Amino acid sequence: MGVKWFPYNKETFEKARREDKPVLIDIGAKWCHWCHVMDRESYSDAEIASFLNENFICIKVDRDEMPNIDRMYQEIVSSISGEGGWPLTVFATPEGKVFYGGTYFPKEERFGKPPFLTVLKAVLNAYKKEKKKTLSLASQIMDEVEKRLKQTSFSDISDKILEKGIDSILSLADPVYGGFGFAQKFPMPTAIRFLLSVKTRFDDSIKFADHTLDEMQASGIHDHIFGGFFRYTIDREWIIPHFEKIIYDNGELLINYSIACRMGKNYEKVAEGIVSFARMMMTESGFFTSIDADFRGVEGGFYTYSYDELEEVLEYEELKAFELFYGVTRDGGFHGRNHLRIIASKESVAEMMNLEVVQLDNILESAKDKLRNYRMRFFNGLNIDRNVYTSYSSIMLSGMFYFGCVFERNDVIEEAERKIKKMLERFDGVLYRKDEMEGLLEDYAFLSSALIDCYTATQKDEYLEIASEIMNVAIKEFYSDGVFSEKTGTSSINDINHRSPLTQIIQNLTSLGHLMENQEYIGFAEEQLKKYAGIKHGLFDAGYLLALQTYLAPIIVEADREELLMLRKYINHNIMVRVGEGSICFSDRCLKADSEEIERLLRKELLIS
Question: What are the residues facing 579 on neighbouring strands?
Answer without folding.
Answer: 559
